[in-house]
Design brief:
The structure holds two protein chains of two kinds. Chain A is α/β, with parallel strands linked by helices. Helix content of chain A is 35%, strand content 22%. Chain A contains eight helices and seven strands. In chain B, strands 1-4-8-5-9-10-11-12 form an eight-stranded mixed sheet, with helices on both faces. A two-stranded antiparallel ribbon of chain B has the order 2-3. In chain B, β11, α11 and β12 form a beta-alpha-beta unit. The chains are: A alpha/beta, B alpha/beta.
Chain lengths: 210, 387
């Protein structure tokens, strides 16, 4: 446990938020789990049954070496293969905007898992709005460094867009956070319009049904 | 020829002989007794007997996984993967590989002597299945006093055995790696096997399988079977890269049916060297066993049911250019394992070398195997090898 506590101080702020949401011993699927840092952390500190999907072979290999069960695939094609209700939590970190069909991906997540945790860059952040307003060009920021023609991010949304989609899907927002430019959760609960302007990322915990 | 018969009866391997009072009940209903299993081991079994890894060989492989082959003198067929410091580290693990029953390198097969007649079985040998092979291997594992294997690893037909192990003896398999394999043989694969068998049986020297008794050998038929099969082990890109339309020892066509092209010469060589070490009847029996393999059919039509409640960790690997056991075959298994709630990892490795890639120098396969087995060993408390 001491190892877990030591590592919790070094993990990314959004990962820390996610690990606060996940319950002990839960069945967890991390979609786009990269090299498995979050999954490994959850397995160590929360004793979760950790599964992952990762598109890159290098990422899968790194996960396998950590003893994680991870298959090569992606959110657009591989979620369909899982039976209903086989996970307690399905996590999608910083990947929603890169899926071909974000709505379908979210629906699938809430089909195979009772809860979904989604983090995404907020396209409504003031810096992005200002960039578009004053320069008239597609925003390129520190967080989103790709140009419009080579970005993997094909479906940007704002925090308010995400709230609207959650409502359309009849998903209950259990918890929501906006992270500031430093990746820290914004201190106080503010109205959506404020988060939508000031948050660089949204982190949402959704549950099936209202 | 004498070498081949000797290997079938008195192999250059350790042999477990099971006598008439420990018969093997086969899926066909036939009973095999007495029978023997020829096997090689590498490394040392630890005191708790927890560090054993079983390797299952492919159709034309054998137990000589990491030592010089007693017939051909060639290096072990998986020497790149198995040995001291290798991904399957023989300084850390006790590695076992046995010749499958039905084979011709010392485990009982059609080239072995039928105790009832005193002559080689030939086609009187009972038709086997992959599960039969695995049940025979389980006898060997019992004999070695091993309750649970740390891992079972194999490619192609070896991968089928791995899956059968995980399905038949889930409690005895802690982790498993089916590589470039499938849960059932496809129609196309059965078709290729049928071509090979017909080539063997069309050879007048096959003599209805009684060639050994007559002192003949259907080497032409068997080598044609091998040539056809070998094409399926490669990819079009690999053939093109290796041979293109290059001529063999000549600058122009000879307007004959000589081996003008390098690719022809290569295939003839493959056929020719194969018949030196392999028994034609074994080829019939082992291809048949693969054709019959259908793990879903064995479990009421549901592949997931084959793995229901399993605690075994799975790691599947496929290769992008493998059209004999394509990635979709592995994905089907992954799908079923997910449905069964099993712990499963899956990697598709980029390679243009076709099905053969699993036997070749593929660093990404080695890294995956090392990582997976190392993680399994860690969770079983097996210390790292001392260097």
């Amino acid at each position: 446990m001491t190892m877990g506590q030591a590592s919790i101080t070094t993990i990314r702020a959004d990962h820390r938020l996610v690990s606060e949401m996940v319950t002990e011993g839960a069945r967890v699927l991390d979609v786009g789990c990269g090299d498995g840092v979050l999954l490994h952390h959850l397995a160590q500190t929360k004793g979760v049954d950790a599964r992952g999907i990762e598109i890159s072979r290098e990422g899968v290999a790194a996960c396998v070496t950590k003893g994680l069960a991870v298959i090569q695939g992606d959110a657009d094609t591989d979620l369909f293969d899982y039976p209903d209700d086989c996970f307690d939590f399905v996590i999608l970190s910083q990947t929603l905007q890169a899926t071909r069909q974000p709505r379908v991906a979210l629906e699938q997540m809430l089909r195979i898992g009772r809860n979904a945790i989604v983090s995404f860059p907020n396209f409504g952040h003031w810096r992005i709005r200002a960039h578009l307003l004053f320069q008239g060009r597609m925003p390129v920021t520190e967080n989103l460094p790709d140009t419009w023609y080579n970005t993997p991010n094909i479906h940007f949304c704002t925090i308010r867009d995400f709230v609207a989609l959650s409502e359309e899907l009849n998903a209950k927002i259990v918890r929501a956070h906006a992270l500031n430019a430093a990746g820290k959760p914004m201190a106080v609960e503010m109205p959506w319009w404020f988060w939508n302007l000031m948050g660089e990322q949204g982190v949402f915990w959704l549950a099936r049904g209202k | 020829m004498s070498v081949r018969i000797n290997e079938a009866e008195e192999p250059h391997s350790q042999v477990l002989r099971l006598d008439a009072d420990t018969p093997l009940q086969l899926e066909s209903g036939a009973i095999l007794a007495p029978f023997q299993i020829a096997y090689q081991t590498y490394g040392a079994l630890n005191a708790d007997k927890t560090n054993a890894i079983l390797i299952c060989h492919a159709l034309t492989g054998d137990q000589h996984v990491a030592n010089e082959h007693p017939v051909t003198g060639k290096a072990g067929w998986w020497l790149s993967l198995v040995g001291p410091g290798k991904p399957i580290d023989t300084d850390r693990f006790f590695v076992i590989c046995s010749n499958v029953i039905g084979g011709c390198m010392g485990s009982t097969g059609p080239a072995s002597r039928n105790p009832e007649t005193g002559e080689p079985y030939g086609t009187d040998f009972p038709v086997l299945t992959i599960s039969d092979m695995v049940r025979a291997q389980a006898r060997l594992i019992d004999h070695l006093g091993i309750e649970t294997l740390l891992a079972v690893v194999g490619g192609s037909m070896g991968g089928m055995q791995v899956l059968a192990w995980a399905s038949l003896f889930p409690a005895r398999v802690f982790a498993c790696m089916p590589i470039a394999s499938a849960a059932k043989h496809s129609a196309q694969n059965i078709a290729f096997h049928e071509v090979g068998r017909q080539a063997v049986m069309a050879d007048p020297d096959w003599r209805r399988g009684r060639y050994t008794i007559d002192g003949a050998r259907p080497i032409k038929g068997l080598s044609v079977a091998r040539m056809a099969a070998h094409i399926t082990y490669l990819s079009e890109a690999a053939l093109q890269r290796k041979f293109g339309r290059n001529f063999q020892d000549r600058d122009a066509p000879t307007f004959s049916f000589d081996a003008d092209f390098q690719v022809e010469s290569y295939l003839r060589h493959q056929g020719f060297t194969f018949v030196e070490r392999f028994d034609a009847n074994s080829y019939l029996y082992l291809t048949r066993a693969m054709d019959y393999f259908d793990l879903a059919a064995d479990n009421g039509g549901s592949l997931a049911a084959a793995f229901k409640g399993t605690k075994t960790r799975f790691c599947l690997v496929s290769f992008t250019s493998d059209w004999l056991f394509p990635t979709s075959d592995s994905r089907q298994i992954v799908h079923a394992l997910n449905a069964a709630g099993a712990s499963v990892s899956f990697v598709e490795i980029e390679s243009d070398k076709g099905h053969d890639a699993f036997l070749l120098e593929e660093p990404n396969l080695f890294a995956t195997a090392r990582g997976f087995l190392d993680a399994a060993a860690r969770s079983r408390g097996i210390p790292e090898a001392e260097r």
